[in-house]
Amino acid sequence: MYSQFFSQELLSRSLRVYLTHFLSSSKSLSYFLFPSHLPVFSIPGTTSLGMSVFNLSNAIMGSGILGLAFALANTGIFLFSLLLVSVTLLSIYSIHLLLVCSKETGCMVYEKLGEQVFGTPGKMIVFGSTSLQNVGAMLSYLFIVKNELPSAIKFLMGKEESFSAWYVDGRILVVAVTFGIILPLCLLKNLGYLGYTSGFSLSCMVFFLIVVIYKKFQIPCFEPGLNTTSPILSNSSAHEHMCKPKYVIFNSKTVYALPTIAFAFVCHPSVLPIYSELKDRSQKKMQLVSNISFFAMFVMYFMTAIFGYLTFYENVQSDLLHKYQSKDDILILTVRLAVIVAVILTVPVLFFTVRSSLFELARKTKFDLCRHVLVTFVLLVIINLLVIFIPTMKDIFGVVGVTSANMLIFILPSSLYLKITHQDGAKFTQRIWASLFLALGIMFSLVSIPLVIYDWVQSGGSTEGSD
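RESULT FIELD:
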Protein backbone atom coordinates (compact mmCIF):
# COMPACT_ATOMS: atom_id res chain seq x y z
CA MET A 1 0.00 0.00 0.00
CA TYR A 2 2.79 2.40 0.89
CA SER A 3 4.70 1.69 -2.34
CA GLN A 4 1.53 2.35 -4.35
CA PHE A 5 0.95 5.65 -2.53
CA PHE A 6 4.60 6.67 -3.08
CA SER A 7 4.35 5.92 -6.81
CA GLN A 8 1.16 7.98 -7.11
CA GLU A 9 2.74 10.89 -5.24
CA LEU A 10 5.84 10.78 -7.47
CA LEU A 11 3.71 10.73 -10.60
CA SER A 12 1.50 13.56 -9.33
CA ARG A 13 4.53 15.67 -8.49
CA SER A 14 6.15 15.05 -11.90
CA LEU A 15 2.95 16.01 -13.68
CA ARG A 16 2.63 19.19 -11.61
CA VAL A 17 6.22 20.21 -12.33
CA TYR A 18 5.74 19.63 -16.07
CA LEU A 19 2.41 21.39 -16.32
CA THR A 20 3.38 24.34 -14.14
CA HIS A 21 6.46 25.05 -16.28
CA PHE A 22 4.51 25.06 -19.50
CA LEU A 23 0.91 26.02 -18.70
CA SER A 24 1.26 28.81 -16.16
CA SER A 25 0.13 31.45 -18.66
CA SER A 26 -3.50 30.28 -18.56
CA LYS A 27 -4.36 32.66 -15.70
CA SER A 28 -6.33 30.02 -13.79
CA LEU A 29 -4.65 26.65 -13.64
CA SER A 30 -4.63 26.20 -9.90
CA TYR A 31 -7.73 24.08 -9.59
CA PHE A 32 -6.74 21.81 -12.47
CA LEU A 33 -3.05 21.44 -11.64
CA PHE A 34 -3.32 21.00 -7.90
CA PRO A 35 -6.27 18.94 -6.67
CA SER A 36 -7.07 19.74 -3.08
CA HIS A 37 -6.24 16.30 -1.69
CA LEU A 38 -2.54 16.50 -2.57
CA PRO A 39 -0.20 17.54 0.26
CA VAL A 40 1.55 20.20 -1.81
CA PHE A 41 3.25 21.94 1.12
CA SER A 42 5.05 18.71 2.03
CA ILE A 43 6.59 18.39 -1.45
CA PRO A 44 9.70 20.50 -2.10
CA GLY A 45 9.61 22.71 -5.18
CA THR A 46 11.98 22.30 -8.11
CA THR A 47 11.52 25.52 -10.12
CA SER A 48 14.22 28.19 -9.95
CA LEU A 49 13.50 31.81 -9.08
CA GLY A 50 14.21 32.90 -12.66
CA MET A 51 11.83 30.36 -14.17
CA SER A 52 9.19 31.28 -11.59
CA VAL A 53 9.50 34.94 -12.64
CA PHE A 54 9.08 33.85 -16.28
CA ASN A 55 6.01 31.75 -15.38
CA LEU A 56 4.36 34.53 -13.38
CA SER A 57 5.15 37.10 -16.09
CA ASN A 58 3.44 34.76 -18.55
CA ALA A 59 0.45 34.56 -16.23
CA ILE A 60 0.20 38.36 -16.04
CA MET A 61 0.71 39.07 -19.73
CA GLY A 62 -2.39 38.80 -21.88
CA SER A 63 -4.62 40.58 -24.36
CA GLY A 64 -5.08 43.45 -21.90
CA ILE A 65 -1.88 44.97 -23.29
CA LEU A 66 -3.77 45.79 -26.51
CA GLY A 67 -6.28 48.00 -24.66
CA LEU A 68 -3.90 50.09 -22.57
CA ALA A 69 -3.19 52.73 -25.23
CA PHE A 70 -6.96 53.26 -25.52
CA ALA A 71 -7.14 53.62 -21.74
CA LEU A 72 -4.34 56.21 -21.87
CA ALA A 73 -6.07 58.11 -24.68
CA ASN A 74 -9.13 58.51 -22.46
CA THR A 75 -7.34 59.44 -19.23
CA GLY A 76 -4.25 61.36 -20.31
CA ILE A 77 -0.59 60.54 -19.67
CA PHE A 78 -0.48 61.75 -16.06
CA LEU A 79 -3.72 60.14 -14.90
CA PHE A 80 -2.95 56.89 -16.72
CA SER A 81 0.53 56.71 -15.17
CA LEU A 82 -0.99 57.26 -11.74
CA LEU A 83 -3.55 54.49 -12.31
CA LEU A 84 -0.98 52.07 -13.73
CA VAL A 85 1.43 52.59 -10.81
CA SER A 86 -1.43 52.30 -8.31
CA VAL A 87 -2.83 49.05 -9.76
CA THR A 88 0.70 47.57 -9.95
CA LEU A 89 1.39 48.32 -6.27
CA LEU A 90 -2.08 47.23 -5.16
CA SER A 91 -1.72 43.96 -7.11
CA ILE A 92 1.60 43.28 -5.40
CA TYR A 93 -0.06 43.93 -2.02
CA SER A 94 -2.91 41.57 -2.86
CA ILE A 95 -0.36 38.87 -3.74
CA HIS A 96 1.17 39.46 -0.29
CA LEU A 97 -2.24 38.91 1.36
CA LEU A 98 -2.78 35.77 -0.70
CA LEU A 99 0.61 34.34 0.29
CA VAL A 100 -0.09 35.05 3.98
CA CYS A 101 -3.46 33.28 3.70
CA SER A 102 -1.79 30.31 2.02
CA LYS A 103 0.85 30.11 4.76
CA GLU A 104 -1.73 30.35 7.55
CA THR A 105 -4.03 27.67 6.12
CA GLY A 106 -1.57 25.43 4.26
CA CYS A 107 -3.73 25.70 1.10
CA MET A 108 -1.99 26.07 -2.26
CA VAL A 109 -5.19 26.17 -4.34
CA TYR A 110 -7.30 29.33 -4.62
CA GLU A 111 -10.61 27.44 -4.72
CA LYS A 112 -9.62 25.22 -1.80
CA LEU A 113 -8.52 28.30 0.14
CA GLY A 114 -11.92 29.90 -0.43
CA GLU A 115 -13.68 26.70 0.65
CA GLN A 116 -11.60 26.30 3.82
CA VAL A 117 -12.19 29.89 4.93
CA PHE A 118 -15.78 30.53 3.80
CA GLY A 119 -17.09 27.04 3.08
CA THR A 120 -18.97 26.14 -0.10
CA PRO A 121 -19.97 29.78 -0.85
CA GLY A 122 -16.27 30.75 -0.79
CA LYS A 123 -15.42 27.94 -3.19
CA MET A 124 -18.25 28.99 -5.54
CA ILE A 125 -17.20 32.65 -5.51
CA VAL A 126 -13.58 31.82 -6.28
CA PHE A 127 -14.66 29.39 -9.00
CA GLY A 128 -17.01 31.99 -10.51
CA SER A 129 -14.36 34.72 -10.45
CA THR A 130 -11.59 32.62 -11.98
CA SER A 131 -13.92 31.13 -14.61
CA LEU A 132 -15.28 34.55 -15.59
CA GLN A 133 -11.71 35.84 -15.85
CA ASN A 134 -10.76 32.93 -18.12
CA VAL A 135 -13.89 33.33 -20.25
CA GLY A 136 -13.13 37.06 -20.56
CA ALA A 137 -9.60 36.24 -21.67
CA MET A 138 -10.93 33.76 -24.27
CA LEU A 139 -13.39 36.35 -25.55
CA SER A 140 -10.63 38.95 -25.92
CA TYR A 141 -8.43 36.43 -27.76
CA LEU A 142 -11.20 35.47 -30.18
CA PHE A 143 -11.98 39.14 -30.62
CA ILE A 144 -8.38 39.58 -31.81
CA VAL A 145 -8.99 36.82 -34.37
CA LYS A 146 -12.22 38.54 -35.42
CA ASN A 147 -10.44 41.88 -35.87
CA GLU A 148 -7.03 40.88 -37.21
CA LEU A 149 -7.53 37.79 -39.39
CA PRO A 150 -9.54 39.63 -42.09
CA SER A 151 -6.75 42.22 -42.46
CA ALA A 152 -4.11 39.50 -42.73
CA ILE A 153 -6.11 37.61 -45.39
CA LYS A 154 -6.71 40.80 -47.41
CA PHE A 155 -2.98 41.49 -47.38
CA LEU A 156 -2.11 37.98 -48.51
CA MET A 157 -4.74 38.23 -51.29
CA GLY A 158 -3.39 41.61 -52.39
CA LYS A 159 -6.73 43.30 -51.70
CA GLU A 160 -7.37 46.79 -50.35
CA GLU A 161 -8.33 47.23 -46.70
CA SER A 162 -11.79 48.38 -47.83
CA PHE A 163 -12.35 45.11 -49.75
CA SER A 164 -15.36 43.19 -48.45
CA ALA A 165 -16.56 39.65 -49.10
CA TRP A 166 -18.14 36.93 -46.98
CA TYR A 167 -14.82 35.07 -46.63
CA VAL A 168 -13.12 38.11 -45.06
CA ASP A 169 -15.96 38.77 -42.63
CA GLY A 170 -14.50 38.63 -39.11
CA ARG A 171 -17.63 37.00 -37.67
CA ILE A 172 -17.52 34.14 -40.17
CA LEU A 173 -13.77 33.74 -39.75
CA VAL A 174 -13.90 33.54 -35.95
CA VAL A 175 -16.57 30.80 -36.17
CA ALA A 176 -14.48 28.93 -38.78
CA VAL A 177 -11.33 29.16 -36.64
CA THR A 178 -13.21 28.11 -33.51
CA PHE A 179 -14.78 24.98 -34.95
CA GLY A 180 -12.02 24.17 -37.45
CA ILE A 181 -8.97 24.58 -35.19
CA ILE A 182 -9.90 25.33 -31.58
CA LEU A 183 -12.68 22.72 -31.19
CA PRO A 184 -10.48 19.72 -32.17
CA LEU A 185 -7.79 20.92 -29.74
CA CYS A 186 -10.36 21.38 -26.96
CA LEU A 187 -11.62 17.83 -27.48
CA LEU A 188 -8.24 16.33 -26.60
CA LYS A 189 -8.01 14.66 -23.17
CA ASN A 190 -4.88 16.64 -22.27
CA LEU A 191 -3.15 19.71 -23.65
CA GLY A 192 0.41 19.25 -22.39
CA TYR A 193 2.12 20.09 -25.66
CA LEU A 194 0.17 23.35 -25.98
CA GLY A 195 2.03 24.59 -22.91
CA TYR A 196 4.85 25.63 -25.21
CA THR A 197 2.57 28.40 -26.48
CA SER A 198 2.98 30.25 -23.17
CA GLY A 199 6.53 31.19 -24.10
CA PHE A 200 5.49 31.85 -27.70
CA SER A 201 2.69 34.17 -26.56
CA LEU A 202 5.05 36.20 -24.38
CA SER A 203 7.55 36.41 -27.26
CA CYS A 204 4.78 37.67 -29.56
CA MET A 205 3.86 40.42 -27.10
CA VAL A 206 7.52 41.48 -26.75
CA PHE A 207 7.74 41.53 -30.56
CA PHE A 208 4.54 43.60 -30.65
CA LEU A 209 6.02 46.11 -28.19
CA ILE A 210 9.16 46.46 -30.34
CA VAL A 211 7.02 47.09 -33.43
CA VAL A 212 4.88 49.66 -31.57
CA ILE A 213 8.01 51.58 -30.54
CA TYR A 214 9.49 51.34 -34.05
CA LYS A 215 6.28 52.45 -35.75
CA LYS A 216 6.02 55.54 -33.55
CA PHE A 217 8.96 56.95 -35.52
CA GLN A 218 7.66 55.69 -38.88
CA ILE A 219 4.02 56.81 -38.88
CA PRO A 220 3.28 60.54 -39.03
CA CYS A 221 0.37 61.81 -36.99
CA PHE A 222 -1.77 62.56 -40.03
CA GLU A 223 -0.84 59.87 -42.48
CA PRO A 224 -3.79 59.36 -44.86
CA GLY A 225 -6.04 56.50 -43.84
CA LEU A 226 -4.88 56.36 -40.24
CA ASN A 227 -7.31 58.94 -38.91
CA THR A 228 -10.41 58.11 -40.87
CA THR A 229 -12.49 58.18 -37.72
CA SER A 230 -11.72 61.86 -37.15
CA PRO A 231 -13.43 64.82 -38.82
CA ILE A 232 -11.41 66.48 -41.59
CA LEU A 233 -9.46 69.35 -40.12
CA SER A 234 -8.89 72.44 -42.24
CA ASN A 235 -5.94 74.20 -40.68
CA SER A 236 -2.50 73.36 -39.35
CA SER A 237 -3.23 74.67 -35.84
CA ALA A 238 -6.05 72.15 -35.45
CA HIS A 239 -3.70 69.43 -36.74
CA GLU A 240 -1.09 70.51 -34.26
CA HIS A 241 -3.63 70.45 -31.43
CA MET A 242 -4.70 66.87 -32.21
CA CYS A 243 -1.08 65.70 -32.34
CA LYS A 244 -0.30 67.19 -28.96
CA PRO A 245 -0.35 64.74 -26.03
CA LYS A 246 -2.93 65.31 -23.29
CA TYR A 247 -2.04 64.79 -19.64
CA VAL A 248 -5.45 64.65 -17.94
CA ILE A 249 -8.65 63.72 -19.78
CA PHE A 250 -12.16 62.97 -18.57
CA ASN A 251 -14.83 61.69 -20.97
CA SER A 252 -17.43 58.93 -21.21
CA LYS A 253 -14.73 56.32 -21.98
CA THR A 254 -12.51 57.23 -19.01
CA VAL A 255 -14.51 54.76 -16.89
CA TYR A 256 -12.98 51.87 -18.88
CA ALA A 257 -9.41 52.78 -17.95
CA LEU A 258 -9.25 51.25 -14.47
CA PRO A 259 -11.10 48.00 -15.40
CA THR A 260 -8.79 47.59 -18.42
CA ILE A 261 -5.68 48.04 -16.28
CA ALA A 262 -7.07 45.68 -13.62
CA PHE A 263 -7.86 43.07 -16.30
CA ALA A 264 -4.27 43.33 -17.58
CA PHE A 265 -2.75 42.58 -14.16
CA VAL A 266 -4.83 39.60 -13.00
CA CYS A 267 -2.65 36.55 -12.39
CA HIS A 268 -3.77 35.57 -8.90
CA PRO A 269 -5.12 32.06 -9.65
CA SER A 270 -1.66 31.12 -10.99
CA VAL A 271 0.29 32.52 -8.02
CA LEU A 272 -0.23 29.60 -5.64
CA PRO A 273 0.62 26.86 -8.20
CA ILE A 274 3.83 28.73 -9.09
CA TYR A 275 4.55 29.21 -5.37
CA SER A 276 4.11 25.49 -4.71
CA GLU A 277 6.80 24.60 -7.27
CA LEU A 278 9.31 27.29 -6.21
CA LYS A 279 12.65 25.86 -5.16
CA ASP A 280 13.54 26.53 -1.49
CA ARG A 281 10.00 27.85 -1.12
CA SER A 282 9.35 30.75 1.25
CA GLN A 283 6.86 33.59 1.40
CA LYS A 284 9.67 36.16 1.10
CA LYS A 285 11.12 34.48 -2.00
CA MET A 286 7.73 34.25 -3.71
CA GLN A 287 7.07 37.89 -2.91
CA LEU A 288 10.35 38.70 -4.67
CA VAL A 289 9.18 36.69 -7.69
CA SER A 290 5.94 38.69 -7.79
CA ASN A 291 7.73 42.04 -7.35
CA ILE A 292 10.11 41.35 -10.26
CA SER A 293 7.31 40.01 -12.50
CA PHE A 294 4.98 42.94 -11.86
CA PHE A 295 7.77 45.47 -12.40
CA ALA A 296 8.71 43.84 -15.72
CA MET A 297 5.09 43.82 -16.88
CA PHE A 298 4.62 47.41 -15.68
CA VAL A 299 7.48 48.50 -17.94
CA MET A 300 6.05 46.57 -20.92
CA TYR A 301 2.54 47.87 -20.36
CA PHE A 302 3.63 51.47 -19.91
CA MET A 303 5.87 51.49 -22.99
CA THR A 304 3.19 49.85 -25.16
CA ALA A 305 0.55 52.33 -23.99
CA ILE A 306 2.69 55.46 -24.29
CA PHE A 307 4.16 54.67 -27.72
CA GLY A 308 0.80 53.46 -29.05
CA TYR A 309 -0.86 56.66 -27.83
CA LEU A 310 1.89 58.91 -29.22
CA THR A 311 1.44 57.25 -32.60
CA PHE A 312 -2.35 57.69 -32.97
CA TYR A 313 -3.28 60.06 -30.10
CA GLU A 314 -7.06 60.30 -29.66
CA ASN A 315 -7.68 58.05 -32.68
CA VAL A 316 -6.32 54.95 -30.98
CA GLN A 317 -8.77 52.02 -30.77
CA SER A 318 -9.51 49.56 -27.97
CA ASP A 319 -7.55 46.97 -29.97
CA LEU A 320 -4.27 48.77 -30.63
CA LEU A 321 -3.01 46.18 -33.11
CA HIS A 322 -6.05 46.74 -35.33
CA LYS A 323 -5.06 50.38 -35.82
CA TYR A 324 -1.92 49.45 -37.74
CA GLN A 325 -2.60 49.00 -41.45
CA SER A 326 -0.82 45.97 -42.95
CA LYS A 327 -1.06 47.22 -46.54
CA ASP A 328 2.43 46.84 -48.08
CA ASP A 329 3.90 46.39 -44.59
CA ILE A 330 5.45 42.97 -44.03
CA LEU A 331 6.43 43.83 -40.45
CA ILE A 332 2.84 44.59 -39.42
CA LEU A 333 1.62 41.46 -41.20
CA THR A 334 4.22 39.38 -39.37
CA VAL A 335 3.29 40.68 -35.91
CA ARG A 336 -0.40 40.35 -36.75
CA LEU A 337 0.00 36.70 -37.81
CA ALA A 338 2.20 35.95 -34.79
CA VAL A 339 -0.38 37.33 -32.36
CA ILE A 340 -3.23 35.52 -34.16
CA VAL A 341 -1.44 32.17 -33.99
CA ALA A 342 -0.48 32.74 -30.33
CA VAL A 343 -4.04 33.54 -29.22
CA ILE A 344 -5.57 30.69 -31.23
CA LEU A 345 -3.26 28.20 -29.50
CA THR A 346 -3.82 29.78 -26.07
CA VAL A 347 -7.63 29.60 -26.16
CA PRO A 348 -7.75 25.76 -25.75
CA VAL A 349 -5.52 25.99 -22.64
CA LEU A 350 -7.88 28.52 -21.04
CA PHE A 351 -10.89 26.50 -22.15
CA PHE A 352 -9.42 23.32 -20.69
CA THR A 353 -9.10 24.87 -17.23
CA VAL A 354 -12.66 26.27 -17.27
CA ARG A 355 -14.13 22.93 -18.33
CA SER A 356 -12.03 20.99 -15.80
CA SER A 357 -13.10 23.31 -12.98
CA LEU A 358 -16.73 22.98 -14.10
CA PHE A 359 -16.54 19.17 -14.01
CA GLU A 360 -14.75 19.28 -10.65
CA LEU A 361 -17.44 21.54 -9.24
CA ALA A 362 -20.17 19.20 -10.51
CA ARG A 363 -18.15 16.23 -9.13
CA LYS A 364 -18.08 14.67 -12.61
CA THR A 365 -14.34 13.98 -12.70
CA LYS A 366 -14.60 10.58 -14.41
CA PHE A 367 -14.06 11.01 -18.15
CA ASP A 368 -17.21 10.55 -20.23
CA LEU A 369 -16.82 11.11 -23.98
CA CYS A 370 -20.41 12.22 -24.67
CA ARG A 371 -20.42 14.71 -21.77
CA HIS A 372 -16.94 15.90 -22.74
CA VAL A 373 -17.98 16.63 -26.35
CA LEU A 374 -21.38 18.13 -25.45
CA VAL A 375 -20.05 20.55 -22.83
CA THR A 376 -17.16 21.58 -25.09
CA PHE A 377 -19.48 22.27 -28.03
CA VAL A 378 -22.08 24.18 -25.99
CA LEU A 379 -19.46 26.37 -24.26
CA LEU A 380 -17.77 27.21 -27.57
CA VAL A 381 -21.13 28.12 -29.15
CA ILE A 382 -21.90 30.48 -26.25
CA ILE A 383 -18.44 32.06 -26.41
CA ASN A 384 -18.74 32.58 -30.18
CA LEU A 385 -22.15 34.22 -29.85
CA LEU A 386 -20.68 36.65 -27.31
CA VAL A 387 -17.71 37.42 -29.57
CA ILE A 388 -19.99 38.06 -32.55
CA PHE A 389 -22.39 40.37 -30.74
CA ILE A 390 -20.02 42.26 -28.41
CA PRO A 391 -19.17 45.46 -30.31
CA THR A 392 -15.68 46.28 -28.98
CA MET A 393 -12.87 44.89 -26.84
CA LYS A 394 -13.33 47.71 -24.34
CA ASP A 395 -16.65 46.13 -23.36
CA ILE A 396 -14.89 42.85 -22.55
CA PHE A 397 -12.17 44.63 -20.58
CA GLY A 398 -14.80 46.74 -18.82
CA VAL A 399 -17.11 43.91 -17.71
CA VAL A 400 -14.36 41.49 -16.66
CA GLY A 401 -12.33 44.29 -15.08
CA VAL A 402 -15.13 45.51 -12.79
CA THR A 403 -16.27 41.99 -11.85
CA SER A 404 -13.81 39.09 -11.77
CA ALA A 405 -10.60 41.16 -11.88
CA ASN A 406 -11.85 43.29 -9.00
CA MET A 407 -12.80 40.18 -7.02
CA LEU A 408 -9.47 38.44 -7.63
CA ILE A 409 -7.25 41.47 -6.97
CA PHE A 410 -9.09 43.40 -4.25
CA ILE A 411 -12.05 41.72 -2.59
CA LEU A 412 -11.12 38.03 -2.24
CA PRO A 413 -7.51 38.36 -0.91
CA SER A 414 -8.52 40.99 1.66
CA SER A 415 -11.67 39.10 2.73
CA LEU A 416 -9.75 35.86 3.16
CA TYR A 417 -7.02 37.63 5.14
CA LEU A 418 -9.49 39.38 7.45
CA LYS A 419 -11.38 36.14 8.12
CA ILE A 420 -8.23 34.12 8.82
CA THR A 421 -6.69 36.73 11.15
CA HIS A 422 -9.87 37.88 12.92
CA GLN A 423 -8.66 36.52 16.28
CA ASP A 424 -5.03 37.61 15.91
CA GLY A 425 -4.65 40.81 17.94
CA ALA A 426 -0.99 41.13 16.93
CA LYS A 427 -2.04 41.90 13.36
CA PHE A 428 -4.32 44.82 14.17
CA THR A 429 -2.41 47.29 11.94
CA GLN A 430 -2.25 44.83 9.04
CA ARG A 431 -5.98 44.20 9.41
CA ILE A 432 -6.67 47.93 9.12
CA TRP A 433 -4.75 48.06 5.83
CA ALA A 434 -6.55 44.95 4.59
CA SER A 435 -9.90 46.50 5.56
CA LEU A 436 -9.05 49.65 3.60
CA PHE A 437 -8.03 47.46 0.67
CA LEU A 438 -11.38 45.66 0.82
CA ALA A 439 -13.23 48.98 1.02
CA LEU A 440 -11.31 50.17 -2.06
CA GLY A 441 -12.42 47.10 -3.98
CA ILE A 442 -16.06 47.53 -2.96
CA MET A 443 -15.96 51.24 -3.86
CA PHE A 444 -14.40 50.35 -7.22
CA SER A 445 -17.35 48.06 -7.94
CA LEU A 446 -19.99 50.52 -6.74
CA VAL A 447 -18.59 53.31 -8.90
CA SER A 448 -17.40 51.46 -12.02
CA ILE A 449 -20.30 49.07 -12.67
CA PRO A 450 -23.01 51.80 -12.87
CA LEU A 451 -20.73 53.99 -15.03
CA VAL A 452 -20.03 51.13 -17.47
CA ILE A 453 -23.77 50.38 -17.71
CA TYR A 454 -24.49 54.09 -18.21
CA ASP A 455 -21.97 54.26 -21.06
CA TRP A 456 -23.60 51.25 -22.73
CA VAL A 457 -27.01 52.91 -22.53
CA GLN A 458 -25.67 56.21 -23.86
CA SER A 459 -23.59 54.72 -26.70
CA GLY A 460 -26.25 52.19 -27.67
CA GLY A 461 -23.67 49.53 -28.61
CA SER A 462 -21.09 51.59 -30.40
CA THR A 463 -18.88 50.10 -33.04
CA GLU A 464 -15.13 50.10 -33.01
CA GLY A 465 -15.02 53.01 -35.23
CA SER A 466 -16.68 55.18 -32.71
CA ASP A 467 -14.16 54.55 -30.04
